[in-house]
Amino acid sequence: MIDETPVIAEGFDEPLQEGMIFALEPKKGIENIGMVGIENTFIVTAEGGECITGDNPGLIPVY
After folding, report:
1. How many structural domains is the chain composed of?
2. Other C-beta atoms lying within 10 Å of the C-beta of residue 17
3. Whether the Cβ atoms of residue 42 and residue 21 lie closer than 8 Å to each other
4. Which domain holds residue 4?
5. Which pLDDT value is given to residue 2?
6. Coiled-coil ranges per the record (predicted)?
7. Which of 31, 48, 50, 60 has its CA 20 to 30 A from that of 23?
């Protein structure tokens, strides 16, 4: 499975609930090179989303 719940995209209506943890993983295909993407993980709190990835996720090349 490519996407796990909750899916945050048009056409999906599952509400986010306090205590849920989810990753935002935008991807982009680059012709003749492959895919590039980033990932940040969040926990849903009573005040909103809190990023738990860290303060400086940086970029990590994967070959």
Report:
1. 1
2. 8
3. yes
4. 1-63
5. 56
6. none
7. 31
- Averaged pLDDT in 10-residue chunks for the chain of 63 residues: 72 89 88 87 93 75 69
How big, in percent rounded to 5, are the helix, strand and coil portions of the chain?
Answer: 0, 35, 65
Residues, the chain: 63
Structure token digits, residue 58:
């940086």
Q: Which of 40, 46, 44 is nearest to 16 (CA)?
A: 44
Residue 52 CB-half CA count within 13 A: 12
If you search the block for the tokens 């989810």, which residue do you land on?
22
CA angle 61, 44, 59 (to 5 degrees): 10
- Maximum CA pair distance of the chain? 44
